[in-house]
């Protein structure tokens, strides 16, 4: 589903954020991406979502080489990906309905179908009752779940989450991860960037670790290795 082959990313100005990164993430796989602040986690997610281009190497999504696509193909590629941001990136002057509907509006989905899909997405994250609210009327955890509903509303095969539990307490963090597990259980490929080593240790998922732009480990989280 996602394949990196010897990928490098140097930002304009010369900073080398990722060096020689290679890994595969299969359809239906769920993994964590971790590493210190500045290690390159967000950069790696931005490369997958075509917000940045690699300087060298190859990135395949569903066997398409996204390092070689042109501008007109980018929106088409992005339909495969639901992106969740730590700061939610919600439009504060729009209702929860409008926020979640955004990817469908961009795709010109009809009004009736949009309503059906937004209601289904909000039900999935347990926020049906907030459909007419504005983001400031919701707690941080609820806003995060609106961001998740928006990311899954067009049923992408890949979900990328950048520090999705960053501002949440341990109980809410676990609730969010459980939601990702639900999507994963129906075949969605999920990659979660996080600093939260406690959370990673409690879960039994593959963990990719970056250090200064290099991938230093790719394996199961510690707890599973200890059990085996
Ligand atoms: N647009 C940019 N231009 C130049 N340098 C950048 C740019 N974006 C990121 N960088 C640099 O690339 C490095 C990796 O940044 P990135 O945001 O990927 O790290 P991160 O692991 O996600 O960090 P954090 O956990 O703090 O969010 C950092 O040193 C950062 O300063």
Briefly say what this structure is.
The chain is of the alpha/beta class. It has helices at residues 41-48, 74-78, 96-106, 111-124, 140-152, 170-185, 197-202, 222-227; strands at residues 2-10, 16-25, 30-35, 56-61, 64-65, 81-84, 158-162, 189-193, 206-211, 214-220. Strands 6-7-8-3-9-10 form a 6-stranded mixed sheet, with helices on both faces.
List the helices and strands and how they pair.
Layout (H helix, E strand, L loop, with lengths): L1 E9 L5 E10 L4 E6 L5 H8 L7 E6 L2 E2 L8 H5 L2 E4 L11 H11 L4 H14 L15 H13 L5 E5 L7 H16 L3 E5 L3 H6 L3 E6 L2 E7 L1 H6 L1
Parallel strand pairs: 3-8, 3-9, 6-7, 7-8
Antiparallel strand pairs: 1-2, 1-4, 4-5, 9-10
The structure holds adenosine-5'-triphosphate (ATP).
Descriptive account of the structure:
It is found in: Cell inner membrane; Cell membrane. GO terms for molecular function: ATP binding. It comes from Thalassotalea fonticola. By secondary structure, the chain is α/β, with parallel strands linked by helices. 35% of the residues lie in helices and 26% in strands. It has eight helices and ten strands. Strands 6-7-8-3-9-10 form a six-stranded mixed sheet, sandwiched between helices. A four-stranded antiparallel sheet has the order 2-1-4-5, covered by helices on one side. A hairpin with a 2-residue loop joins strand 9 and strand 10. Helix 3 (96-106) crosses helix 4. The radius of gyration is 17 Å and the shape is globular. Residues 223-228 have low confidence and may be disordered. The chain binds adenosine-5'-triphosphate (ATP). Adenosine-5'-triphosphate binds next to helix 1.
């Amino acid at each position: 589903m996602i394949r990196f082959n010897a990928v490098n990313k140097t930002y304009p100005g010369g900073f080398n954020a990722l060096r020689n990164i290679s890994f595969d993430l299969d359809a239906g796989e769920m993994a964590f991406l971790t590493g210190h602040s500045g290690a390159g986690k967000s950069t790696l997610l931005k490369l997958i979502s075509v917000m940045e281009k690699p300087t060298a190497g190859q990135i395949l999504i569903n066997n398409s080489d996204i390092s070689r696509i042109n501008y007109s193909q980018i929106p088409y590629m992005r339909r495969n990906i639901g992106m969740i941001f730590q700061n939610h990136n919600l439009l504060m002057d729009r209702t929860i309905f409008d926020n979640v509907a955004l990817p469908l509006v961009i795709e010109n989905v009809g009004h009736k179908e949009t309503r059906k899909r937004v209601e289904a997405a909000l039900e999935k994250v347990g926020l049906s009752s907030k459909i007419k609210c504005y983001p400031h009327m919701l707690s941080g955890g609820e806003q995060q779940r609106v961001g998740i509903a928006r990311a899954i509303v067009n049923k992408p095969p890949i979900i990328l989450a950048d520090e999705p539990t960053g501002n949440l307490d341990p109980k809410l963090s676990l609730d969010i991860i459980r939601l990702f597990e639900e999507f994963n259980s129906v075949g969605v490929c999920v990659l979660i960037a996080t600093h939260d080593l406690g959370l990673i240790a409690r879960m039994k998922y593959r963990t990719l670790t970056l250090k200064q732009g290099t991938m230093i480990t790719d394996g199961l989280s510690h707890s599973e290795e200890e059990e085996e």
